[in-house]
Fold this protein.
Amino acid sequence: MSEELHEITLRVNGHDHAVAVPARRLLSDALRLDLGLTGTHVGCEHGVCGACTVLLDGAPTRACLMFAVSAVEAEITTVEGLSQPDGSLGPVQQAFKDCHGLQCGFCTPGFLTTITAGLEENPHPTRDEAREMVGGNLCRCTGYQNIVAAVLKAAELR
Amino acid sequence: MKPAPFAFVRPRSLEEALEVLGAHPDAKVLAGGQSLVPLLTMRLAAPAMLVDINAVPDLDRISCDDDGVRIGALVRHAALLRDEDAARTQPLLRLALSHVAHPTIRNRGTTVGSIVHADAAAEMPAVLALLGGSVEVASVRGRRTIEAADLFAGPLESTLAHDEIAVSAWFPALRPGERVGFAEIARRHGDYAMCGVAALVGPERTRVAYLSVEEVPTIVDLTGVAPDDVGEAALAHLDPQPDIHATAAYRSQLVRVLTRRVLEQAA
């Protein structure tokens, strides 16, 4: 017996996407499999690592901790939506590049979305506030020093 | 892993949600999902149906008066944490909420959902128990109020019936002369605490709540105990449990240290 599919529309990075998904399709999987937006990475898949963080109506949210069928009324922003309209890097992306805030890049999309929203709420964070901002995201490469530096740099670039 | 298949409904009214829940004995309510979705993903739970209440109107309200703070089932931890009226009415809410997971989880997770999920390692069940709050539940059979003292049956088990939805929780206000404190120790920032302690110190009584110590949130009355003796006095009423994160002896030590710390905070 095939699984029931739900016809839904996801609004991602300003565009509507009509998809048919089983109820159990995680938002993270829907973004990657159904929409081809593979910038959202799946790490632990139970809410710990933060790699899949997207913005739901502007608020950082774990895409692996909700179902696509629950995201129908939300404006979703993924890492693909963080670049400038002309395709150049957004301020947080530019700051990560400038400060060497990434190595392997696996965790980076989750950091970029989290920091983008964090700077909306607190445009001029102290070093401690910058650390708190990224406290829910894991990076196994950098040791976080350059990520914290990138938060402060992004605040200058915005 | 991925969740097992389930049927899914997203009702537009509370009545509709209650009807669906009443008609499907193996259905489960989905609010913020920050505890439920990992359980589904790891296949520790596999309900036949999820009733997503996120589209039910009017459940996201916070209302404060002189008696206390009432929050609807869809109030996210982050919204309650930000609410100035709620923080003024009962300061323990903000103190404890800042320890609930990470900001990203708090953006989606609901306080009422966390309470009825009844995890003994969670902050807000212990806060509700300490303050003597309550939860209002609804079903097709009607409404009732469950006092916090009657809410927590065991690990991850509340006394809600299967067909009931927790529509709101109520936290009593801080009364004149009362002080509060909160502290916890976790292995990692934002992770579940190995031990957490909340205190409510009034002119007549000193009560302390423990999370992650026993299988349900536990309240101990420490009225009149000398400051040097509070840790041992609390342990006389507690049976700290060992798990993969901490031995019973280590938990006991955390009880000693944190009890003293929160009572100093609330002095």
Q: What stands out?
A: The two ends of chain B are 48 Å apart (CA to CA).
